[in-house]
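User: Could you check the structure of this?
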Amino acid sequence: MFERVSISDLETQPIWRRPIVLLFLMALAMPIAFNAWLALLNNFVIEVAQFDGADIGLLHTVREIPGFLAIGVIAVILVVREQVLAMISLLMLGAATAVTAWFPQMGGILMITLLSSIGFHYYETVNQSLQLQWLDKKRAPQVLGWLVAAGSAATLVVYLGIERLWKPMNLSYDVVYMAAGGATFVMALVCLFAFPQFEGTTAQTKKLILRRRYWLYYALQFMAGARRQIFVVFAGFMMVEKFGFEVHELTRLYLINLVINMTVAPMLGKAVSHFGERRTLNFEYIGLAIVFAAYGGVYWFSWGLAVAATLYVIDHIFFALALALKTYFQKIADPADIAPTAAVAFTINHIAAVGLPVPLGLLWLASPAAVFALAAAMALVSFGLSLLIPRHPEPGNETIFAHRGQPQAAE
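Assistant: Sure, the predicted structure tokens are below.
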């Protein structure tokens, strides 16, 4: 059905039909639907469905279930190519986002969130695998930084449209969700039919693998999922619940984040290349620990809106450094392990994401500051783990405890 082209033989293809162009189009398409959904989510569930902290915790638990089951990608790619699966997942994300406002009750919101989340998480799993397969190790940090910037640019268009047009045009949740979801759906169709199927230089292992030598990568992924979930669920919720942000005001804060990310992300990619994964991740995790502790201070010491908004922006900058975790794995991995390990790592990343939102939502009702204090502690654990990354990671030298020249573990 589709033309197949080897990664090692791209000279036969025009520049616009090459893998890096496809990666950029995918990086533009996904954020349109996902971030439109995210920008309106807190206001939508509070204003339309009267959610409280416990309800938003339940919603995000449901949203993260497909991420926890991302390991199922290994079974799917036995019958569907990774590139095709990425497009199908984008189509599902776009379609589900488009009809989100049609389901304003708890049951409907949970159902449509689950469907859009399947699309999002399966896309993200496969996309990470394709990036690491298609990008050269030396150029990967810089290109990943540019891909982050491209995603930020697409989201900027979405947020700017919401921020500028929400009140003047009296936009509704339905209109915005339909427009954003529809745009992602159409772009996914273009990506599906306009590009050939790219054949990687190494055939991917299509079975579940857990290798002992990747243990540090697995541990860092687990902690990343726990920290990220607290930020995704509760940082934006705080801005609406505590400070009464309206849709256009919260979107304005997102816009600030995006402009900074578009400028900073390519530089962060260069920083990873220059300083290495170990130093970059050390810096990220210490910074996140300080930011989360300061979030707690917003409640403990009644710090104002300006402090909370500033912390929210700084938070986003630190999270952009997570690309260093991708390149750390790319350097230590057997090339054939990239696809199955991406699925396993995504599942590990979401173990805490599935288990934490509901109990943390209940804790939020008692003490929002305690939720952020827990996140700061998690960031410090991640910092401790990142100290175990060697200066020059590679197969056989995955952690500071490994020794170069040893046979690679097969477990």
